[in-house]
Amino acid sequence: MSNDHKGVLMRKKLLSGLAALCLTGAMLAGCTAAPTEPDGGGGGGDTSANVYLYQKPVSFNPLKPPQGGEQLAMSLIFDNLFTTDPDFEFTPRLAESWDISDDAKTYTFHLRKGLTWSDGEPFTADDVVFTFNLQANPAVGGAWGGRLSGVEGYSAVHDGSTTELSGLTAPDENTVVFQLSEPNAGFLSLIGYGSVMYILPKHVLGEKDPATLLEDPWFTRPTAGMGPYVVKAFNVDQDIELDANSHFRTKVGIDHLYLKMLTSDVATAQLGTGEIDLAQVSALDYDAVKALPGVTVSSKPSAGFNRVAVNSSKPQFADERVRQAMLYAIDRQGIIDGVLGGQAELLNSDIMTPWALPDDLEDYAYDPDKAKELLAEAGFDPAQQVTLSWVPGQRDRDQMANVIIENLKAAGINAVANQVEVGVLLDSYKNATYDLALFGGGVYTPDPASSVPIIACAQRYPAGGNTALFCNEELDAAMADGQKVVEQDERAALYQKAAVLDNELVPYLWLNVPHAIWATSERLKGFEPHGDFTNGFWNAADWTVEG
Questions:
Q1: Strands (E), 236-286
Q2: CA-closest candidate to residue 260, choices 73, 417, 33
Q3: For an engineered disulfide with 201, which of 83, 104, 224, 467 has Cβ 3.0 to 4.6 Å away?
Q4: In-domain check, residue 489
């Protein structure tokens, strides 16, 4: 039999299996009888592509706490000063270059000249200053303000006086300067990684009341952005229609993108039938998708990690022995092998930068008996119910949750499942009502300072990304020491001490560093896989389609 005939039979067999999945209750709502070849676009030479979006956005507001699906969509609409490439190195975006003073207190960004917003208005340094002042303004109540706490003039309290950062200036329309109150060699990692700190249009939002911006309806369909695409239609719970931004700094390769809101099972099936051109694939589907003819699968280690936030503000979880016990109770390597198909690695600290980690961290190997001993020592009440919350829809995360619950039960913790919507989960952080919360993401590899927002006392949600509501002043001081020096060997020694303390205190239950698995159809060209699953569209302007 010829290779061509073998390929046809293989494709028919796989598509038949995927079509059969569409008949199950879990898949019924998302599968359609689409043609085997995708529509290459409308008349006039237009091109289009269908992209899987693994969570359903509510709005596209960069001031709000992050949600993965929204971050991916916003990366197409907005842009930031710089981002990280697939090697997690900083790469220019709206800023073409930057300078850092020898004492790491002055950061100067040189913007690209002649840029315009998608509505044709000029882009200048005033937009950048406006955006970062919004982020730092306590009246806004945004998610990222704490990352600017080192800039001169920052205040976490809104007292009605000026809310502008005195250390943030624009000497001319193409230059922005951040002046810090003390040295911070990790400042870049706080303001420019991946899909955060998107620049917003002053000419549109500048006259609005900052206190109302988190819920401003403009963000449901932004009319001005610096990204490669503009929103044509936002069909809630279905898809987002995007058109190429004719004012983008380079020619955008695909005229129309359609972001499809599907479950991972449905996305996998539609990748096989040719209805999806780009999908983030569950590790559970890795082997099946890799076998599909005409589909390319790539796997990249993440710069973030899957974890369980333990609500440290609740008395029953305040003792680190309880959190240590939970780590011992969870078969983390078993989750990697059984749920993630080996597509992940273990970690034992919130610090992920290799040079900042010592070799002698406690590895918290699976040990239910040790877990029971620690719980008894801490006086933990086994009768009290402990709820694990998470946003369902990703099969690997759903299965992780089930394993974690069973492991905790086996160690004497009365764990129960609680599947919630994104908004409900965020409210439970804000109100400090949750017990345990399973989630993942972030970019912590480029610099150890990246981890400060998820563990620092001042960054407790909603002021920052510390959703565990954890606070330890000794750890805060240890992390701050590492930011104040510039020379890497000296920084490494300081951060390694901080990592040892972090490893002992267990602010989060560190599960694994997952691989971001991407699958593309043969018609999509130019896609470069990224380990940060919220920054997977980082080079979308360069994508093209054939056929």
A1: 239-244, 256-261, 278-280
A2: 73
A3: 224
A4: yes
Q: Is residue 379 part of a domain?
A: yes
| Residue 461 domain flag | yes
Query: Per-residue confidence of the chain (547 residues) as pLDDT tens digits?
Result: 333 333 333 333 333 343 333 323 333 333 333 333 344 333 346 999 999 998 888 899 999 877 888 999 999 999 999 999 999 999 999 999 999 999 999 999 999 999 999 999 999 999 999 999 999 999 998 888 888 989 999 987 766 666 789 999 999 999 999 999 999 999 999 998 667 799 999 999 999 999 999 999 999 999 999 999 999 999 988 999 999 999 999 999 999 999 999 887 788 889 989 999 999 988 888 999 999 989 999 999 899 999 999 999 999 999 999 999 999 999 999 999 999 999 999 999 999 999 999 999 999 999 999 999 999 999 999 999 999 999 997 888 999 999 999 999 999 999 999 999 988 998 999 999 999 999 998 889 999 999 999 999 999 998 888 999 999 999 999 999 999 999 999 999 999 999 999 999 999 999 999 999 999 999 999 999 999 988 999 999 999 999 7
Instruction: Classify residue 324: in a domain, yes or no.
Output: yes
State the DSSP code for 125: H
Residues in CB range of 210: below 8 A, 6 or more apart: 134, 137, 139, 140, 163
In sequence order, what are the residues at sequence separation of 6 or more whose Cβ sits closer than 8 angstroms to the Cβ of residue 23? none
Sign of the C-alpha dihedral, residues 146, 150, 152, 157? positive
Spatial distance between the Cα atoms of 168 and 179, rounded to a whole number of angstroms: 6
Q: How many independent structural domains does the chain possess?
A: 1
CA separation for the pair 170, 373 (Å, rounded): 58
The DSSP secondary-structure symbol of 258 reads E
Amino acid found at 271: L
Q: Read off the pTM.
A: 0.82
CB-count burial class (<10 Å; 0-12, 13-18, 19+) for 209: exposed
Q: For residue 393, give the CATH number of its domain.
A: 3.10.105.10
3-state secondary structure of 299: strand
Can you tell me which residue has the tokens 């991946």? 194
DSSP string, 392-443: ---HHHHHHHHHHHHHHHHTT-EEEEEE--HHHHHHHHHTT--SEEEEEE--
